[in-house]
Amino acid sequence: MLMNLFSSRGWESWDLGCRPLIPELMPVLIGEDLLLEDGPGAPRPVVAVNRWLRELPVSGAAAPATWLAYGRIMKAWLEFLEARGVPVFAGREPLRAALSAYAEYRATGPLPRRFSAATWNQHVSVLASFYRWALAEGHAQAEPFSYRMARGVFAGGQVRVNRAIRRRPKPHVTIKYLEPDFTEMFLNALAGLSPDGAQDAVFRGRELARNACAGQLAVATGLRLQEFTYLLSYEVPPLPRTRTGAPVGFGVPSGVTKGRKFRTTWISYEALAAVHQYLELDRAVTVGGSAWAPPARWGPALRVSDADAEGGRIDGVRRRWENLVPAERRRLVAAGGGSCLVAVKAGGGPFTAWASVFERTSDRIRECYEPRFPHVNPHRTRHTFAMRTLEYLVSGYYRQTAALAAATGDGSTADAALALYLSKADPLLVLRDLLGHSSVLTTESYLRRLDTTRIYASAYQACQAGPDAGTAGRADAEREAAAEFAGEDDGGVA
Fold it and tell me: Which domain holds residue 190?
Protein backbone atom coordinates (compact mmCIF):
# COMPACT_ATOMS: atom_id res chain seq x y z
CA MET A 1 0.00 0.00 0.00
CA LEU A 2 1.36 3.43 -1.01
CA MET A 3 0.49 6.77 0.53
CA ASN A 4 1.07 10.16 -1.07
CA LEU A 5 0.23 13.67 0.08
CA PHE A 6 -1.87 15.40 -2.55
CA SER A 7 -0.62 18.54 -4.26
CA SER A 8 -2.57 20.35 -6.97
CA ARG A 9 0.50 22.05 -8.39
CA GLY A 10 0.41 21.75 -12.17
CA TRP A 11 -3.16 20.40 -12.29
CA GLU A 12 -3.80 22.33 -15.50
CA SER A 13 -1.70 19.76 -17.36
CA TRP A 14 -3.72 16.79 -16.05
CA ASP A 15 -6.39 17.00 -18.76
CA LEU A 16 -9.05 18.03 -16.22
CA GLY A 17 -11.79 20.59 -16.59
CA CYS A 18 -11.27 22.08 -13.13
CA ARG A 19 -9.04 21.83 -10.10
CA PRO A 20 -9.55 18.57 -8.10
CA LEU A 21 -11.67 18.85 -4.95
CA ILE A 22 -8.97 17.36 -2.75
CA PRO A 23 -7.43 19.45 0.06
CA GLU A 24 -3.73 20.18 -0.19
CA LEU A 25 -1.56 17.69 1.77
CA MET A 26 -4.46 15.24 2.05
CA PRO A 27 -3.16 11.63 2.23
CA VAL A 28 -4.15 9.49 -0.74
CA LEU A 29 -3.83 5.70 -0.47
CA ILE A 30 -3.38 3.45 -3.50
CA GLY A 31 -2.28 -0.12 -4.12
CA GLU A 32 1.25 -0.87 -5.25
CA ASP A 33 -0.13 -1.68 -8.72
CA LEU A 34 -1.38 1.95 -8.85
CA LEU A 35 -4.97 0.83 -9.47
CA LEU A 36 -8.06 2.05 -7.65
CA GLU A 37 -10.47 -0.49 -9.16
CA ASP A 38 -10.46 -4.10 -10.23
CA GLY A 39 -12.54 -3.39 -13.31
CA PRO A 40 -15.32 -1.14 -14.61
CA GLY A 41 -17.75 -0.44 -11.79
CA ALA A 42 -15.64 -2.40 -9.29
CA PRO A 43 -13.84 0.14 -7.07
CA ARG A 44 -11.50 -1.17 -4.42
CA PRO A 45 -12.18 -0.49 -0.72
CA VAL A 46 -9.32 2.00 -0.69
CA VAL A 47 -11.57 4.35 -2.70
CA ALA A 48 -13.93 4.53 0.28
CA VAL A 49 -10.99 5.02 2.62
CA ASN A 50 -9.76 7.96 0.53
CA ARG A 51 -13.25 9.46 0.54
CA TRP A 52 -13.37 9.22 4.33
CA LEU A 53 -10.00 10.93 4.56
CA ARG A 54 -11.16 13.73 2.23
CA GLU A 55 -14.11 14.39 4.51
CA LEU A 56 -11.96 14.83 7.62
CA PRO A 57 -11.84 18.66 7.29
CA VAL A 58 -15.64 18.79 7.74
CA SER A 59 -15.67 16.05 10.38
CA GLY A 60 -13.83 17.95 13.11
CA ALA A 61 -10.25 17.29 11.93
CA ALA A 62 -9.03 20.52 10.33
CA ALA A 63 -5.27 20.06 10.76
CA PRO A 64 -3.12 18.46 8.00
CA ALA A 65 -1.06 16.78 10.71
CA THR A 66 -4.22 14.95 11.84
CA TRP A 67 -4.97 13.87 8.28
CA LEU A 68 -1.47 12.44 7.99
CA ALA A 69 -1.79 10.55 11.27
CA TYR A 70 -5.17 9.10 10.23
CA GLY A 71 -3.79 8.17 6.81
CA ARG A 72 -0.89 6.28 8.34
CA ILE A 73 -3.20 4.42 10.71
CA MET A 74 -5.48 3.35 7.86
CA LYS A 75 -2.49 2.35 5.72
CA ALA A 76 -1.15 0.08 8.49
CA TRP A 77 -4.58 -1.54 8.98
CA LEU A 78 -5.13 -2.10 5.24
CA GLU A 79 -1.68 -3.65 4.86
CA PHE A 80 -2.32 -5.99 7.78
CA LEU A 81 -5.68 -7.10 6.37
CA GLU A 82 -4.22 -7.60 2.90
CA ALA A 83 -1.40 -9.78 4.26
CA ARG A 84 -3.98 -11.95 6.09
CA GLY A 85 -6.37 -12.14 3.15
CA VAL A 86 -9.24 -10.39 4.95
CA PRO A 87 -11.31 -7.84 2.98
CA VAL A 88 -11.64 -4.38 4.51
CA PHE A 89 -15.43 -4.68 4.48
CA ALA A 90 -15.70 -8.35 5.41
CA GLY A 91 -18.36 -9.73 7.73
CA ARG A 92 -18.22 -9.19 11.46
CA GLU A 93 -16.70 -12.59 12.30
CA PRO A 94 -13.63 -12.32 10.01
CA LEU A 95 -13.15 -8.67 10.98
CA ARG A 96 -13.25 -9.58 14.68
CA ALA A 97 -10.70 -12.35 14.09
CA ALA A 98 -8.47 -9.92 12.17
CA LEU A 99 -8.75 -7.30 14.92
CA SER A 100 -7.79 -9.90 17.52
CA ALA A 101 -4.74 -10.89 15.47
CA TYR A 102 -3.86 -7.22 14.96
CA ALA A 103 -4.04 -6.55 18.71
CA GLU A 104 -1.72 -9.50 19.39
CA TYR A 105 0.64 -8.35 16.60
CA ARG A 106 0.87 -4.83 18.01
CA ALA A 107 1.24 -6.00 21.62
CA THR A 108 3.68 -8.94 21.40
CA GLY A 109 4.71 -9.15 17.75
CA PRO A 110 8.08 -8.09 16.29
CA LEU A 111 9.63 -5.42 18.46
CA PRO A 112 9.64 -2.64 15.80
CA ARG A 113 5.91 -3.25 15.23
CA ARG A 114 4.73 -3.11 18.82
CA PHE A 115 2.56 -0.26 20.08
CA SER A 116 2.35 1.32 23.50
CA ALA A 117 -1.10 1.37 25.06
CA ALA A 118 -1.55 5.04 24.11
CA THR A 119 -0.65 4.42 20.45
CA TRP A 120 -2.88 1.34 20.26
CA ASN A 121 -5.80 3.28 21.72
CA GLN A 122 -5.30 6.02 19.14
CA HIS A 123 -5.42 3.43 16.34
CA VAL A 124 -8.58 1.89 17.81
CA SER A 125 -10.25 5.30 17.99
CA VAL A 126 -9.44 6.12 14.36
CA LEU A 127 -10.47 2.70 13.04
CA ALA A 128 -13.73 2.82 15.00
CA SER A 129 -14.47 6.25 13.51
CA PHE A 130 -13.82 4.92 10.01
CA TYR A 131 -16.07 1.89 10.40
CA ARG A 132 -18.89 3.97 11.89
CA TRP A 133 -18.69 6.19 8.81
CA ALA A 134 -18.51 3.17 6.48
CA LEU A 135 -21.63 1.66 8.09
CA ALA A 136 -23.54 4.93 7.78
CA GLU A 137 -22.52 5.31 4.12
CA GLY A 138 -23.38 1.74 3.22
CA HIS A 139 -19.84 0.58 2.44
CA ALA A 140 -19.65 -1.86 5.35
CA GLN A 141 -22.13 -4.31 6.77
CA ALA A 142 -20.33 -4.80 10.09
CA GLU A 143 -17.54 -3.39 12.24
CA PRO A 144 -14.96 -5.32 14.27
CA PHE A 145 -15.53 -3.51 17.57
CA SER A 146 -17.72 -4.27 20.58
CA TYR A 147 -18.83 -1.74 23.16
CA ARG A 148 -19.95 -1.63 26.75
CA MET A 149 -22.01 1.03 28.46
CA ALA A 150 -20.60 3.07 31.32
CA ARG A 151 -21.90 5.91 33.40
CA GLY A 152 -20.52 9.32 32.45
CA VAL A 153 -19.73 10.87 35.81
CA PHE A 154 -19.17 14.40 34.50
CA ALA A 155 -21.05 14.30 31.19
CA GLY A 156 -24.04 12.54 32.73
CA GLY A 157 -26.01 9.61 31.35
CA GLN A 158 -24.57 6.51 29.68
CA VAL A 159 -21.55 6.54 27.36
CA ARG A 160 -20.23 3.84 25.01
CA VAL A 161 -16.74 2.49 25.72
CA ASN A 162 -14.83 0.53 23.08
CA ARG A 163 -13.79 -2.82 24.54
CA ALA A 164 -10.64 -2.92 22.37
CA ILE A 165 -9.14 -0.02 24.35
CA ARG A 166 -6.19 -1.05 26.51
CA ARG A 167 -6.04 -0.10 30.17
CA ARG A 168 -3.30 2.36 31.05
CA PRO A 169 -1.72 3.61 34.29
CA LYS A 170 -3.16 6.77 35.77
CA PRO A 171 -1.99 9.38 33.25
CA HIS A 172 -1.00 12.05 35.76
CA VAL A 173 2.07 10.10 36.85
CA THR A 174 3.91 10.70 33.57
CA ILE A 175 2.97 14.28 32.65
CA LYS A 176 5.57 16.82 33.66
CA TYR A 177 5.86 20.57 33.93
CA LEU A 178 8.52 22.93 35.28
CA GLU A 179 8.37 24.12 38.87
CA PRO A 180 9.05 27.87 39.31
CA ASP A 181 12.73 27.43 40.18
CA PHE A 182 13.32 25.19 37.16
CA THR A 183 11.35 27.59 34.95
CA GLU A 184 13.63 30.45 35.97
CA MET A 185 16.68 28.25 35.41
CA PHE A 186 15.48 27.32 31.93
CA LEU A 187 14.73 30.90 30.88
CA ASN A 188 18.09 32.08 32.20
CA ALA A 189 19.86 29.33 30.26
CA LEU A 190 18.10 30.32 27.04
CA ALA A 191 19.47 33.83 27.58
CA GLY A 192 23.00 32.50 28.17
CA LEU A 193 22.89 33.13 31.92
CA SER A 194 23.75 30.91 34.87
CA PRO A 195 20.96 29.78 37.25
CA ASP A 196 21.50 32.81 39.49
CA GLY A 197 21.06 35.21 36.57
CA ALA A 198 24.73 36.10 36.18
CA GLN A 199 26.54 35.92 32.86
CA ASP A 200 27.65 32.37 32.09
CA ALA A 201 31.44 32.43 32.14
CA VAL A 202 31.82 29.46 29.79
CA PHE A 203 28.84 29.29 27.42
CA ARG A 204 29.03 31.33 24.23
CA GLY A 205 25.79 30.76 22.39
CA ARG A 206 24.26 32.58 19.44
CA GLU A 207 20.92 34.37 19.12
CA LEU A 208 20.46 34.38 22.89
CA ALA A 209 18.01 37.29 22.86
CA ARG A 210 15.82 35.48 20.34
CA ASN A 211 15.89 32.21 22.28
CA ALA A 212 15.07 33.96 25.56
CA CYS A 213 12.21 35.82 23.86
CA ALA A 214 10.67 32.58 22.53
CA GLY A 215 11.02 30.88 25.91
CA GLN A 216 9.35 33.77 27.72
CA LEU A 217 6.59 33.85 25.13
CA ALA A 218 5.87 30.12 25.37
CA VAL A 219 5.90 29.93 29.18
CA ALA A 220 3.91 33.13 29.70
CA THR A 221 1.16 32.47 27.14
CA GLY A 222 0.73 28.68 26.97
CA LEU A 223 0.98 28.78 23.18
CA ARG A 224 1.52 25.49 21.37
CA LEU A 225 4.70 24.97 19.35
CA GLN A 226 3.04 25.83 16.03
CA GLU A 227 1.36 28.86 17.55
CA PHE A 228 4.46 30.64 18.83
CA THR A 229 6.69 29.43 15.99
CA TYR A 230 4.55 31.00 13.25
CA LEU A 231 3.40 34.09 15.14
CA LEU A 232 4.02 37.27 13.15
CA SER A 233 5.77 40.28 14.65
CA TYR A 234 2.71 42.39 13.75
CA GLU A 235 0.48 40.17 15.91
CA VAL A 236 2.31 40.82 19.18
CA PRO A 237 0.02 43.09 21.26
CA PRO A 238 1.30 46.56 22.20
CA LEU A 239 2.92 47.04 25.57
CA PRO A 240 0.65 48.87 28.08
CA ARG A 241 1.79 52.39 28.85
CA THR A 242 2.11 51.61 32.56
CA ARG A 243 3.39 48.50 34.27
CA THR A 244 0.60 46.28 35.60
CA GLY A 245 0.37 43.12 37.63
CA ALA A 246 -2.75 42.07 35.75
CA PRO A 247 -2.31 39.86 32.69
CA VAL A 248 -2.37 41.42 29.23
CA GLY A 249 -4.67 39.96 26.57
CA PHE A 250 -2.87 38.10 23.79
CA GLY A 251 -4.84 37.08 20.68
CA VAL A 252 -3.89 33.79 19.05
CA PRO A 253 -4.73 33.92 15.32
CA SER A 254 -6.92 31.12 13.99
CA GLY A 255 -4.52 30.38 11.15
CA VAL A 256 -2.01 28.74 13.51
CA THR A 257 -4.26 27.30 16.22
CA LYS A 258 -5.34 23.71 16.62
CA GLY A 259 -8.67 23.27 14.85
CA ARG A 260 -8.44 26.83 13.40
CA LYS A 261 -10.18 28.27 16.49
CA PHE A 262 -9.29 31.83 17.46
CA ARG A 263 -8.78 32.39 21.15
CA THR A 264 -7.38 34.99 23.52
CA THR A 265 -4.82 33.92 26.07
CA TRP A 266 -2.79 36.33 28.17
CA ILE A 267 0.78 37.26 29.00
CA SER A 268 2.46 39.03 31.90
CA TYR A 269 3.66 42.59 31.48
CA GLU A 270 7.26 41.51 32.11
CA ALA A 271 7.20 38.78 29.48
CA LEU A 272 5.56 41.07 26.90
CA ALA A 273 8.19 43.72 27.62
CA ALA A 274 10.92 41.15 26.94
CA VAL A 275 9.32 40.24 23.60
CA HIS A 276 9.12 43.91 22.60
CA GLN A 277 12.74 44.45 23.57
CA TYR A 278 13.78 41.65 21.21
CA LEU A 279 11.55 42.98 18.41
CA GLU A 280 12.85 46.53 18.70
CA LEU A 281 16.56 45.75 19.17
CA ASP A 282 18.05 42.40 18.17
CA ARG A 283 15.41 41.41 15.65
CA ALA A 284 15.36 44.86 14.03
CA VAL A 285 19.10 44.64 13.44
CA THR A 286 18.84 41.13 12.00
CA VAL A 287 16.08 41.82 9.45
CA GLY A 288 16.95 45.41 8.56
CA GLY A 289 17.89 45.51 4.88
CA SER A 290 17.88 41.71 4.63
CA ALA A 291 17.76 40.20 1.14
CA TRP A 292 16.27 36.93 2.41
CA ALA A 293 13.71 35.15 0.23
CA PRO A 294 12.03 31.80 0.84
CA PRO A 295 13.56 28.79 -0.94
CA ALA A 296 11.84 27.72 -4.14
CA ARG A 297 10.57 24.48 -2.60
CA TRP A 298 8.37 26.54 -0.24
CA GLY A 299 6.69 28.36 -3.09
CA PRO A 300 6.91 31.98 -4.28
CA ALA A 301 7.69 34.77 -1.85
CA LEU A 302 4.73 36.72 -0.45
CA ARG A 303 5.71 40.40 -0.34
CA VAL A 304 4.15 42.43 2.49
CA SER A 305 3.46 46.16 2.57
CA ASP A 306 1.26 48.51 4.63
CA ALA A 307 1.27 46.07 7.55
CA ASP A 308 -0.60 46.70 10.79
CA ALA A 309 -1.88 44.57 13.68
CA GLU A 310 -4.84 43.21 11.68
CA GLY A 311 -3.31 42.56 8.29
CA GLY A 312 -1.44 44.01 5.37
CA ARG A 313 -1.08 44.02 1.61
CA ILE A 314 0.33 40.74 0.31
CA ASP A 315 1.49 41.11 -3.28
CA GLY A 316 -0.72 44.20 -3.44
CA VAL A 317 -3.91 42.62 -2.06
CA ARG A 318 -5.15 43.40 1.45
CA ARG A 319 -5.24 40.23 3.63
CA ARG A 320 -5.92 39.54 7.30
CA TRP A 321 -3.13 37.78 9.20
CA GLU A 322 -5.58 35.44 10.96
CA ASN A 323 -6.38 33.72 7.65
CA LEU A 324 -2.78 32.77 6.88
CA VAL A 325 -1.63 29.23 7.67
CA PRO A 326 1.96 28.32 8.69
CA ALA A 327 3.04 27.38 5.14
CA GLU A 328 2.07 30.88 3.99
CA ARG A 329 3.41 32.71 7.00
CA ARG A 330 6.95 31.41 6.55
CA ARG A 331 6.95 32.79 2.99
CA LEU A 332 6.10 36.35 4.04
CA VAL A 333 8.80 38.92 3.29
CA ALA A 334 8.56 42.25 5.12
CA ALA A 335 8.77 45.56 3.27
CA GLY A 336 12.00 46.43 5.08
CA GLY A 337 13.50 42.99 4.44
CA GLY A 338 13.55 39.67 6.25
CA SER A 339 10.87 37.29 7.47
CA CYS A 340 7.69 38.53 9.16
CA LEU A 341 7.81 35.84 11.87
CA VAL A 342 8.71 36.91 15.39
CA ALA A 343 11.78 34.67 15.57
CA VAL A 344 14.38 35.05 12.83
CA LYS A 345 17.85 33.65 12.25
CA ALA A 346 21.01 35.26 10.92
CA GLY A 347 20.31 36.62 7.47
CA GLY A 348 16.69 37.47 8.28
CA GLY A 349 15.00 34.14 7.52
CA PRO A 350 12.41 32.49 9.80
CA PHE A 351 13.64 30.31 12.65
CA THR A 352 11.49 27.28 13.51
CA ALA A 353 13.76 24.66 15.17
CA TRP A 354 12.56 25.24 18.73
CA ALA A 355 12.53 21.59 19.72
CA SER A 356 16.30 21.44 19.15
CA VAL A 357 16.94 24.70 21.01
CA PHE A 358 14.93 23.62 24.05
CA GLU A 359 16.54 20.17 24.10
CA ARG A 360 20.11 21.51 23.83
CA THR A 361 19.38 24.03 26.59
CA SER A 362 18.05 21.27 28.85
CA ASP A 363 21.13 19.12 28.18
CA ARG A 364 23.45 22.02 29.05
CA ILE A 365 21.65 22.70 32.33
CA ARG A 366 21.96 19.04 33.35
CA GLU A 367 25.63 18.85 32.41
CA CYS A 368 26.71 22.12 33.98
CA TYR A 369 24.34 22.97 36.82
CA GLU A 370 21.52 20.63 37.79
CA PRO A 371 21.62 16.86 37.04
CA ARG A 372 17.93 16.52 37.98
CA PHE A 373 16.77 19.01 35.35
CA PRO A 374 14.24 17.36 32.99
CA HIS A 375 14.14 17.24 29.22
CA VAL A 376 12.08 20.21 28.03
CA ASN A 377 10.13 19.91 24.81
CA PRO A 378 8.04 22.85 23.55
CA HIS A 379 4.77 21.43 24.89
CA ARG A 380 6.11 21.25 28.45
CA THR A 381 6.10 25.03 28.51
CA ARG A 382 2.33 24.86 27.90
CA HIS A 383 1.90 22.53 30.88
CA THR A 384 4.00 24.95 32.94
CA PHE A 385 1.75 27.86 31.95
CA ALA A 386 -1.35 25.89 32.88
CA MET A 387 -0.07 25.04 36.35
CA ARG A 388 1.23 28.51 37.12
CA THR A 389 -1.96 30.17 35.88
CA LEU A 390 -4.19 27.83 37.85
CA GLU A 391 -2.19 28.55 40.97
CA TYR A 392 -2.65 32.31 40.44
CA LEU A 393 -6.37 31.90 39.74
CA VAL A 394 -6.99 29.72 42.78
CA SER A 395 -5.04 32.02 45.09
CA GLY A 396 -6.89 35.08 43.77
CA TYR A 397 -3.70 36.81 42.62
CA TYR A 398 -4.97 37.78 39.17
CA ARG A 399 -8.36 38.86 40.50
CA GLN A 400 -6.79 41.14 43.07
CA THR A 401 -4.31 42.72 40.66
CA ALA A 402 -6.98 43.24 37.97
CA ALA A 403 -9.33 44.80 40.52
CA LEU A 404 -6.54 47.10 41.70
CA ALA A 405 -5.78 48.17 38.13
CA ALA A 406 -9.47 48.86 37.48
CA ALA A 407 -9.77 50.89 40.68
CA THR A 408 -7.05 53.26 39.51
CA GLY A 409 -8.86 54.05 36.25
CA ASP A 410 -12.27 55.36 35.31
CA GLY A 411 -14.00 52.01 35.55
CA SER A 412 -14.60 51.67 31.81
CA THR A 413 -11.26 50.24 30.72
CA ALA A 414 -10.36 46.72 29.68
CA ASP A 415 -8.87 46.26 33.16
CA ALA A 416 -12.32 46.78 34.67
CA ALA A 417 -13.81 44.15 32.37
CA LEU A 418 -11.01 41.76 33.25
CA ALA A 419 -11.56 42.30 36.96
CA LEU A 420 -15.26 41.49 36.54
CA TYR A 421 -14.48 38.38 34.51
CA LEU A 422 -11.98 37.05 37.02
CA SER A 423 -14.24 37.78 39.99
CA LYS A 424 -17.23 35.93 38.50
CA ALA A 425 -15.67 33.02 36.60
CA ASP A 426 -14.52 29.71 37.99
CA PRO A 427 -10.76 29.12 37.59
CA LEU A 428 -11.44 26.11 35.37
CA LEU A 429 -13.57 28.24 33.04
CA VAL A 430 -10.85 30.89 32.78
CA LEU A 431 -8.18 28.30 32.08
CA ARG A 432 -10.44 26.62 29.51
CA ASP A 433 -10.58 29.87 27.55
CA LEU A 434 -6.84 30.50 27.82
CA LEU A 435 -5.86 27.01 26.66
CA GLY A 436 -8.44 26.94 23.88
CA HIS A 437 -10.28 23.81 25.04
CA SER A 438 -13.76 23.23 23.64
CA SER A 439 -15.15 22.26 27.05
CA VAL A 440 -14.35 22.67 30.72
CA LEU A 441 -14.50 18.86 30.87
CA THR A 442 -11.39 18.80 28.69
CA THR A 443 -9.66 21.25 31.01
CA GLU A 444 -10.60 19.14 34.03
CA SER A 445 -9.20 16.01 32.36
CA TYR A 446 -6.07 17.90 31.30
CA LEU A 447 -5.40 19.22 34.79
CA ARG A 448 -6.00 15.81 36.33
CA ARG A 449 -3.05 14.58 34.29
CA LEU A 450 -0.90 17.38 35.67
CA ASP A 451 -1.63 16.35 39.27
CA THR A 452 -2.95 19.63 40.67
CA THR A 453 -3.81 18.20 44.08
CA ARG A 454 -1.35 20.37 45.97
CA ILE A 455 -2.79 23.58 44.53
CA TYR A 456 -6.36 22.80 45.48
CA ALA A 457 -5.46 21.27 48.83
CA SER A 458 -3.57 24.36 49.93
CA ALA A 459 -5.74 27.16 48.59
CA TYR A 460 -9.04 26.07 47.13
CA GLN A 461 -11.11 23.12 48.33
CA ALA A 462 -14.13 23.35 46.07
CA CYS A 463 -13.05 24.41 42.58
CA GLN A 464 -15.52 22.59 40.34
CA ALA A 465 -17.23 23.84 37.20
CA GLY A 466 -21.00 24.16 36.98
CA PRO A 467 -23.18 21.83 34.92
CA ASP A 468 -23.47 24.27 32.03
CA ALA A 469 -19.74 24.95 31.79
CA GLY A 470 -19.26 22.98 28.60
CA THR A 471 -21.22 21.00 26.07
CA ALA A 472 -18.84 18.25 24.99
CA GLY A 473 -19.27 14.78 26.45
CA ARG A 474 -16.75 13.09 28.70
CA ALA A 475 -15.47 10.84 25.89
CA ASP A 476 -14.85 13.82 23.60
CA ALA A 477 -13.23 15.72 26.46
CA GLU A 478 -10.90 12.84 27.26
CA ARG A 479 -9.84 12.59 23.61
CA GLU A 480 -9.19 16.33 23.41
CA ALA A 481 -7.17 16.27 26.63
CA ALA A 482 -5.22 13.24 25.43
CA ALA A 483 -4.36 15.11 22.24
CA GLU A 484 -2.47 17.65 24.37
CA PHE A 485 0.02 14.93 25.22
CA ALA A 486 -0.04 12.86 22.01
CA GLY A 487 3.43 11.86 20.85
CA GLU A 488 5.05 13.42 23.88
CA ASP A 489 7.89 11.81 25.79
CA ASP A 490 10.89 13.07 27.71
CA GLY A 491 12.74 14.06 24.58
CA GLY A 492 10.00 14.40 22.02
CA VAL A 493 7.84 17.15 20.70
CA ALA A 494 4.08 17.29 21.05
Answer: 180-356
